[in-house]
Specification:
Elements (H helix, E strand, L loop, with lengths): L6 H6 L3 H13 L6 H14 L3 E5 L2 H15 L7 E5 L5 H8 L3 E5 L12 H4 L7 E4 L11 H10 L3 E2 L1 E2 L16 E5 L13 E5 L2 H11 L3 E3 L2 E2 L10 H11 L2 H18 L18 E4 L3 H10 L27 H9 E4 L7 H12 L4
Parallel strand pairs: 2-3, 2-4, 4-5, 6-7
Antiparallel strand pairs: 1-8, 7-8, 9-10, 11-12
The structure holds pyridoxal-5'-phosphate (PLP).
Length: about 375
């Protein structure tokens, strides 16, 4: 069986350095707010070209702490609106809801499942209460930053990039005058051995407030200016991430190699992804005509697959209270997408077996 994602093999491939990092942290006697977390924040900032990095507990917290900070800084009110693509992991809209803002679900491109950024479309979503837009760099590919930031600037919106699937999809767009949320969930391209996340930003004031809110809203010991939360990237995870970060670019290149092989083999029937070298293929999406049967067929061939995502956010029961909208491209992706195995430890033979198995499927 070719597993969808072999986390054991991935983490095993880091060998002794990963074990040493854990051992040293265990022996250090210091487990939170210490040198490993500070060092990882500095290294991740250097890697991304971001002046400020705040380690937090997970990707959801990275998103909601940023939104909560802006809400305070910019005097947003409860019920103010945030534009969110509807084919994303539920964490994206949940972050919006959990800080009292309202997600406005929007459409994506048929070609790549990324948020639609043509201003003629985005304008139709604007109301006097629109405050922010969250492009999700879905599957590891960057949304159209030029168009998003141009639109946001024109309409005075904040932009929060959900980069939870796009570690290493680097773009120095606008000299990195950007704010991104990352998750280090074990299955991400840069994954911890537990939960983790961070915010990267160019904005020192935002960074300070996010750090404060993540630490109980504490400005100095036992003095609390805000109703914050407890959200920490711990020392053990930071130490693990520092080891794994050294190999992130190489791992992403291997993912790109596999993706290129898949794309060549499926060229006849699949839309081509952008080839500017930034796509880091957290997920390799295959659009299937008969997904249920293809998934069963692949299972019989020993190929494990997943679906990202079977139910779009705007059709989740959790969002039954949201305005009902029709989002054809989102719904198309949600009913046809099948994620094929891709990872830094997938071998050429395994990739060939995946392709043969897909090609042997008869509708
Ligand atoms: C993984 C993910 C998140 C949430 O990350 P957690 O660390 O699980 O909270 C948010 N958005 C997207 C797009 C994700 O893929």
């Amino acid at each position: 069986m070719i597993p969808f994602l072999d986390l054991q093999a991935i983490n095993h491939s880091f060998g002794q350095p990963l074990i040493d990092a854990a051992t040293q942290t265990i022996r250090s006697g210091w487990y939170l707010h210490g040198n490993e977390t500070a060092a990882f924040e500095a290294e991740w900032g250097e890697y991304c070209g971001a002046p400020y990095v705040i380690g937090v507990g997970n990707g959801l917290d990275a998103l909601r702490l940023t939104l909560q900070a802006w809400k305070i800084m910019l005097n947003w009110e409860d019920g103010d609106e945030v534009i969110v693509p509807a084919n994303t992991f539920i964490a994206t809209p949940l972050a919006v809801s959990q800080v009292g803002l309202k997600p406005v679900f929007c459409e994506v491109n048929f070609s790549n499942a990324l948020i639609r950024t043509d201003s003629s479309y985005l304008k139709t979503l604007l109301t006097p209460r629109t405050r922010c837009i969250i492009p999700v760099h879905l599957y590891g590919q960057l949304a159209n930053l030029t168009e998003i930031y141009r639109f946001a600037q024109r309409h005075l919106l904040q932009v929060l990039e959900d980069a939870c699937q796009a570690h290493g999809a680097r773009s120095i767009y606008n000299n990195n005058v950007r704010t991104c949320a990352y998750s280090f969930y074990p299955g991400k391209n840069l994954g911890a051995l537990g939960d983790g996340g961070c915010v990267t930003t160019h904005d020192g004031e935002l960074a300070a407030l996010v750090r404060n809110l993540a630490n109980y809203g504490q400005t100095e010991k036992y003095i609390h200016d805000y109703k914050g939360i407890n959200s920490r990237l711990d020392e053990l995870q930071a130490a693990i991430l520092r080891v794994k970060l050294r190999r992130l670019d190489a791992d992403n290149r291997r993912r790109q190699q596999i993706a290129q092989f898949y794309a060549e083999q499926f060229a006849a029937e699949q839309p081509a992804a952008v080839q500017d070298g930034t796509h880091v293929y957290h997920v390799y999406p295959y659009l299937a005509k008969d997904r249920t049967r293809l998934q069963q067929h692949l299972q019989t061939c020993g190929v494990q697959t997943q679906i990202h995502y079977p139910v779009p956010c705007h059709q989740q029961k959790a969002y039954a209270d949201a305005e009902s909208v029709s989002l054809p491209a989102v719904e198309y992706w949600c009913s046809h997408e099948l994620s094929l195995p891709i990872s830094p430890v997938l071998t050429d033979e395994q990739a060939e077996h995946v392709v043969k198995s897909v090609q042997s499927f008869q509708i």
